Each structure stands twice: as C-alpha cells, then as structure tokens.
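Quick one:
INPUT:
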C-alpha cells in the first residue's frame, strides 16, 4: 500500500517561497503507478490541481496557475517537492500530495498553509 505524507511550514509570509515535501512509503516514485501530484483546496472552495511529476521525472503544471511553480523529486529519499514562489494570501489552502491517474490511487492527509504577514 502506497502512503504519502506532506511536510512543510504552516505559515509563509507574502512574497516568500512556499516549499512542501511529500514523502512516499510503500512504493517507489520511479515506478509507473500513476502521477505524483500536488492539489490544493482554498478555504470555501473546491479542489485545485496544481501539477504532477511522472515516474520518468517529467513534469506538467496547471495552465491556470502562474509562473514560479516547480515540482521536483529526490529519488534517493523517495520524495517529491512543490515550490511556489512569490506567494500571496490567495495561496492559502490545504495542500495535498497524491498519487492519481494510474493503476494506484493514494492521498496524503493534507497540510494547512497560511500566507500572512
């Protein structure tokens, strides 16, 4: 069973860079299980897909999000990371990492990120 766990700061100041890490256990991020994704849910709104990194290392980002977005991975630690630069209060949300779109599906429990000075 593949399990995912998000980690990172709960509070980020405006204009700073948000960095979140997803640690995967029970399976390798280099295996073709699906797409290792980041998804967020702002308060009072629905889920918003941010992007993914595939088992090959290829990345794809939501066209509706601005630049300054990056997803990378550390295969030695079996982790993948989201970086979002120049954050604003509109980036306040619960952030999830998830394995979706393939033969396996699994979600992390989510982590609250608040952007505020």
């Amino acid at each position: 069973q593949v399990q995912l766990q998000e980690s990172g700061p709960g509070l980020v100041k405006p204009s700073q860079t948000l960095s979140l890490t997803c640690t995967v256990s029970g399976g390798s991020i280099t295996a073709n299980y699906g797409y290792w994704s980041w998804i967020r849910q702002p308060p009072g709104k629905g889920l918003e897909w941010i992007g993914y990194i595939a088992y090959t290392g290829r990345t794809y980002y939501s066209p509706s999000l601005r630049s300054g977005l990056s997803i990378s991975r550390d295969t030695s630690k079996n982790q993948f990371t989201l970086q979002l630069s120049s954050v604003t209060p509109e980036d306040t949300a619960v952030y999830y990492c998830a394995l979706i779109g393939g033969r396996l599906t699994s979600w992390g429990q989510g982590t609250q990120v608040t952007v505020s000075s």
